[in-house]
Amino acid sequence: MRWFDQLRMKMRMLFGRGAEGAHLDDELQFHLERQIAENRAAGLSGDEARAAALRAFGNPLAVREQARATWGGATVEAFGRDVRYGVRTLLRTPAFSLMAVLVMALCIGAATSLFTIVRSVLLRPLPFRDPDRLVMVYEHFRDARSNAGGFNYNVVSPADFYDWRTQTHGFEDMAAWRYAQFNITGEHGELPELVNAAGGSWNLFSLLGVQPALGRTFVESEDRTDGTAVMLTWSVFERRFGGDPTIVGRQIHLDGKLYTVVGVLPQSFAYPDAKIQVWVTYASGMPAEVLKHHDFHFTRVVARLRPNVSLASALSEVGAVQYQLHLQYPQAPVAEDVAPRSMTDDLSRNVKKPLTILMCAVGCMLLIGCLNVANLLVARSASRQKEIAIRGALGAQRFALICQQMTESLLVCVAGGAAGVMLSVGATRWLASRWKDLPTAQTVHVDGVVVGFACLLVCVAALLAGFLPALSFSTKAAFTILQASSRSVGGSLSRTGLRKTLLTIEIGVTVILLIAAGLLLKSFVSLRATELGCATENVLTLSYSLPMAKYDKPEKVNAFNETLLERVRAIPGVRGVALGSTIPGAGYGGDDVFTIKERPPLKAGAELPDALTRTADPGYFSALEIPLLEGRFFTHDDRLDQTKRIIVSRALVRQYFQGGDPIGKHLHVPARDDADYEIVGVVGDTIWKVGEKTLPMMYFPLLAGMIDEGGALAVRTDGDPRTVSLPVQKQIAALDPQLPVTDVLTLPEVVGDSLSNARFSATLVLAFAGLSLLLACVGLYGVLSYLMTQRMTEIGIRIALGARREQVLTLMLGDGLRPALLGLVIGLVASAAAVRLMQSFLYETQALDPLVFALVAGTLLLVAVLACVVPAWRASHLDPMQALRTE
User: Fold this and answer.
1) 3-class DSSP state of 60
2) Alpha-carbon separation of residue 507 from 180, 704, 822 (angstroms)
3) Residue 533: which region, alpha, beta or left (left: phi > 0; alpha: psi -120 to 50)?
4) pLDDT tens figures, 264-301
5) How far is CA 47 from CA 27, 35, 53, 55, 414, in A?
6) Contact 763, 525 (CB under 8 A)
7) Total-model pTM
8) Which of 25, 79, 170, 829 is deepest in the core (most CB within 10 A)?
9) Which residues of 99-151 form beta strands (DSSP E)?
């Protein structure tokens, strides 16, 4: 049991170190006094006996430390001693301590908050069963065709999905879902509400491994065109139905049709995003012929891999089926291949790039903060050189001195980290709430992993901020330091050079961050300045959707739309009203392929012409001031029983008619009744989304009575368009009290809403860059103030010997501006290489934009001069007699 006795002794020595130390002191004193008594008995005097005993016994303090070292736990004891000493040192200089802690709190808090977002969005596994085996499958065009999102994949048609599921076996199962919208109306006076919805195949929730909180999920027999089963998400269950569990089994009205609530999804389920309020079955409400089409693309397909089956093998089966479909339907936009995408990447594709930029910006800011604290520690340690030298002369080891000063850096970073974590809690909530369409936003929170990341940041920051200063200030020879005066020591070239080097690096990193922020800001300004191709001032927009159950005939749709247009035009202050499926700048809105009837048939496998599709009433183009380039606009004669007509955009003519005259030509559009449409007009191009390239467009007559089109109303007024918002909504309610209205925004607000994330990202990066510039300014001011203090005697002698104050001012400005200029040059060179990686993030802005580089250089030089002027001015007005007396 010897090991047990040793362990017990070590534990006693570790936790009872004070009492054991007292016992050790008593024992050492006992042996020393006994030796003295023996020497006195041998005839020595008192002083001689004590001196002889000490020579024989050795230094009691050294013996004491050697004995304590054998107990174990010496490292813990030394660390505790260093912590106590560091706390006392920091408390003696509260201004320095507060500044250092605040810098680290801001930097660590920002990094922790952003890591929380990144972890929840990009790193955390999705809350599904075996999420690593789930994959999204898209149709993929092998040629250069690319859809509007820059993603050369296409959503899937219903018929393709059914063929994939029945004819392949590499995946355990495949499920589908689509976006939808419904008007929820109540039976007891509740207000109507338009909610975002989704239609999922009956097996979607079992494939994902999602269990309902109440009731059940869909069954196969309910997934049909006349299916009436619905599942509620937790948010709408609590908000509209008061969390009443008896809602399961009851019926609700969706688009005027009765649906039976079969279940309620759990609170944690927010796929594909939190805006989805209800789920119906995939086929519910769709015409049966649509499910058989291979050229209607609106479906997302989720597949689960079989165990021990590779993704490549499973996809090869699906790809073979898709290629056969491509050959079978040459006149339809059927891709020849398929491509996968992980569910995490699919959900985060719109936020991944901005998050990457922000993480890089926060990393730069954290590095700048560490360098700033390192500079503060260098200045803080300058006054302790003699103390450190004395400790070394008395036998302190170099490693012990380094650890003691590193402990001070660790204390600063720990205090800053603790404050930063508390700041990050609020900052994370703010980020999650302000970031539009942030996926899995409901899972964003600070947990143990985030706290662990913050602890890691604290350790890294402490090492970066404290190691170089501690190493530098423990390498000087003690004798040299003790011989020198305090002024000469404080102003030694090695320590001054270290501070200047740290400052140069800090300014260089700040330049990189400022240039990145400048480029993003200019890109955002360019986005805001983009012309939509139509009138934008004094334009109010709103949307509504006519439920097919009530408006089941084209005549009913036309009657509602024409009556609404007449009533809105009669409202005082209204200059024009436009009604269509999608207004400029409001989104993609759908597309269709076509062929030009007057052209020879396309070769087999050739890419089919494609254009965005819109509907427009006869006054649409005049109200929005979209110019007519050729032909005519729609008239009220372009209705249900007239020849099919179409208006095209200039981009379509330029791309597919090569400058020829399109008027009178015919476009054959398979998805639109497989009919030929005569081109009667050419209008100017409009932007479907700010920041995206202009695409060809086809406009169909609204009065043709397409009952599957939503309604987007644009009202142009003489003054503030918001004043007609309520009158317009009252007119809609007068026509149909159960019809909800959504997205009541001015056209500039529509554009601003689409740019909210770009504006948010640019603002955050600019804020980080501004804080970094402030830190660099503080560091520059501190360096020059430090130099002036340490060179006070030299400056006094120069002035006493006749140096002019202008010369002293120039000398001190040169000392401060040299590291700033060197850092600026290094930063500009590094930026020229780094910002090339940002080109894909920029809109109509070159990565090497000379204006941005010049503005950043000028701004930093101005800030550097301002930071240097005050200490340089103080140095030039120094009283030489006072400076010489201080020495």
Assistant:
1) helix
2) 52, 64, 9
3) left
4) 999 888 888 888 999 999 999 888 888 888 878 889 99
5) 21, 13, 10, 12, 51
6) no
7) 0.76
8) 170
9) 134-140
